[in-house]
Amino acid sequence: MSLPPNPRWALVCHGGAGTIPRGRLTPEQEAAYRAALGDAANAGAEVLREGGAAMDAVEATVRLLEDDPLFNAGRGAAFTAEGRNELDASIMDGATLAAGAVAGVSTTRHPISAARAVIDGSDHVLLGGEGADAFARAQGLEQVAPGHFFTEARWASLERALGKLGLPIPPRPHGVGVDARAALAHDEGKRGTVGCVALDRRGNVAAGTSTGGTTAKRWGRVGDSPLIGAGTYAANTAAAVSCTGAGEYFIRLGVAQRICALVEHAGLSLQQAADRVVHEDLSGLGGEGGVIAVDPHGRMAWSFNTDGMYRARIAEREPLTVSIYKDEA
Ligand code: ASP
């Protein structure tokens, strides 16, 4: 694929896909979600507008979404059946195919930055559990008490899920604070994730994804979000993709890499490739979720088979678009 000499910059971000039919969110909730997605997209766009790297834009956008209790990533993450937050994240540089990821971190405030540090600070791609937190600490990344990630909305989701499973309710984590904004969080089902894909002026694409995983997950369950090829993939020869949805299906299909392969080897447009994988492969297997993508020409795409997906896009010479529902642009 030949790259345009001066590609326009472009960025797409998401805050998860799920059960978000029109009328479910209150006007206040809807306004809060739209504002948060717009702010996150604008933060990454600012990096790209100034000539910054796609990797930096992705990290900046995801960090904001991780700090926002509305989304299931960082603060606001879903709880495990034991009442813990075990966070997963990954990031990939389309220029070099360098990739970093962490799974099951519980004290690192920004899992996306830990994932990025794996690229420069280790010889590995994926670090897990306490070792990943220890690595992040050694890299100088901010550590927080477990209560930092706590929100009442996710705890209520956990209690409902444990009730259905007939499992006991664990004690609340230590150091839980009160966060008025968190009261606006909406429960889209058992899931949620945040992610971002970007193209910079040098023609490099990057993708990043961060999540708390699924509510009431057990046994060290890890979803697609920290798995390169499944939840995240980026290659300048194809595109950058970040996924959200029922992780087990995304892992089995290798969704992010599969979309890139269809673009690179089968000549599909980015939108065609995203739609085929989501509406044929994923739906065919019985999985639910969505994807966002950008290619080195600045073409942006999103595709999902759920009622809604929190999403935003912005590019050079293209204003910010923020959407939630299926019937929106
Ligand atoms: N993909 C995430 C996981 O399975 C959850 C989500 O995106 O909704 O952990």
Please write out the topology.
Blueprint: E1 10-18, H1 27-49, H2 54-67, E2 87-93, E3 98-105, H3 111-121, E4 126-128, H4 129-138, H5 152-165, E5 194-199, E6 205-211, E7 232-234, E8 240-245, H6 247-253, H7 255-265, H8 270-285, E9 289-294, E10 300-304, E11 308-315, E12 318-325
Parallel strand pairs: 3-4
Antiparallel strand pairs: 1-5, 1-11, 2-3, 2-6, 5-6, 7-8, 8-9, 9-10, 11-12
Helix pairs in contact: 1-2, 2-3, 3-4, 7-8
The protein binds aspartic acid (ASP).
Describe this structure in words.
The protein has 329 residues and is of the alpha+beta class. The protein has one domain (10-325): 4-Layer Sandwich (Glutamine Phosphoribosylpyrophosphate, subunit 1, domain 1), CATH 3.60.20.30. It has helices at residues 27-49, 54-67, 111-121, 129-138, 152-165, 247-253, 255-265, 270-285; strands at residues 10-18, 87-93, 98-105, 126-128, 194-199, 205-211, 232-234, 240-245, 289-294, 300-304, 308-315, 318-325. The strands form two sheets. It has an eight-stranded mixed sheet. Strand 2 and strand 3 form a beta hairpin. Helix 1 packs antiparallel against helix 2 (54-67) and helix 3 (111-121) crosses helix 4. It is globular, with a radius of gyration of 18 Å. It starts with 9 loop residues before the first strand and ends with a strand. The mean pLDDT is 94. It binds aspartic acid (ASP).
